[in-house]
Design a protein that fits this description.
mainly alpha
Length: about 220
């Protein structure tokens, strides 16, 4: 998806909720990710009028496409497939970061990714227990429902809850996608793209050498 279109769409929906629906900025951010990721955590906070419903419906459709493009970028990055755009760049940086963290921690990337998602799940549970004052089980349900885009619990519409939920969803959903990629594609963030490029380059050079030698070989009549 075109980067300019993606950024323009996100900016438009942010301004729409902020000014048309009179959302606070934290409330807008939480709702943008909630609807954009197609999570739908319980009852919505938008005004029940035709304009809000129509715009939100389109945002859910476009947001779903954007999220799919993000997942596709992760897969392409894991397979070292050349691509371009903001999603591929972010996916590449994410892959490099996990590789560096894995090296420093002396852990396989797959194990590190799983540890990170467990830590982020605990963060989500903390939001439920400490901020929303839910039970441990309900908080766990909120964390899993948010990261898997299932959406089963709705946080209270307060500044702190909205800010924390925005951070949790914005990072948690892609993080869970990375772990899913690790499980489905064992080579994710472990494939040595530099070595592959060197092998391909070496093969091409060898072919050029053989072709040059064939051209220089004298003809026998």
């Amino acid at each position: 998806m075109n980067t300019a279109f993606t950024l323009t769409t996100v900016l438009f929906i942010t301004l729409f909720y902020t000014f048309y629906n009179s959302f606070t900025f934290p409330e807008t951010m939480r709702y943008v990710f909630d609807m954009g990721y197609n999570i739908g955590m319980g009852d919505s906070n938008i005004q029940e009028n035709d304009v809000s419903l129509l715009v939100t419906s389109f945002w859910m459709l476009i947001g779903n496409v954007i999220f799919f493009q993000w997942c596709l970028a992760l897969v392409k990055s894991s397979l070292a497939i050349e691509s371009s755009g903001i999603f591929h760049n972010v996916a590449g940086k994410t892959r490099e970061t996990v590789q560096k963290m894995s090296t420093r921690a002396r852990l396989p990337p797959q194990v590190l990714a799983i540890i990170l998602v467990v830590i982020w799940t605990i963060f989500g549970i903390g939001i439920g227990v400490l901020v929303e004052e839910w039970s441990l089980l309900k908080s766990f349900n909120f964390a899993i429902g948010g990261m898997t885009t299932t959406g089963s619990q709705l946080v209270s519409n307060t500044t702190l809850s909205n800010i924390l939920s925005t951070v949790f969803l914005a990072i948690g959903v892609p993080l869970f996608s990375i772990v899913t990629s690790v499980v489905v594609l064992p080579d994710f963030i472990t494939k040595d793209t530099d070595n592959e490029e060197n092998i391909e380059l070496g093969t091409a050079r060898q072919k050029n050498i053989e072709l040059g030698a064939a051209r220089q070989k004298p003809l026998n009549y």
